[in-house]
Amino acid sequence: xRAEAIGDGVIALVAASERHRQVAxxxxxxxxxxxxxxxxxxxxxxxxxxxxxxxxxxxxxHGNEPAGSYGVLQLLRLWLTTSDPALLDLLSEVTLxxxxxxxxxxxxxxxxxxxxxxxxxxxxxSQGLPETQAxxxxxxxxxxxxxxxxxxxxxxxxxxxxxxxxxxxxx
Length: 171
Prior knowledge:
Oligomer: single chain
Number of strands: 5
Distance between the termini: 31 Å
Shape: globular
């Protein structure tokens, strides 16, 4: 799905959160892609709680790996609609910050790399790309206890995959 479609899903969830009595959800633009598209982060917590821990989830650094974006939307939807006391208690202690589309230009083109043809996952040391700069600033600002960077194998991956390294007979 295009980054705009994922963004529309995020907007709908944030709007729905305004009606939720126990869960607070907010979105903010943390930066812009090379082509000026928004990089949006969504924060979820229990309404009125002051969570002590932040967990971040980053999806779709590679534009041709959409599963992470869908997973983030499902996770946000679950936390927004839950009445499970255990999940609500967790939200009292943890703020979830999620970036559903970290490479909106690549996502719109269904390309692995950013608009300039660079792999954002290889830019963390130099942080020369605006996308990586925005993510790094958000990470520094929130100082998460854990960061999940979601990826997937695609049919065109030629760097091998984890199945190749499993012992004979499976996991």
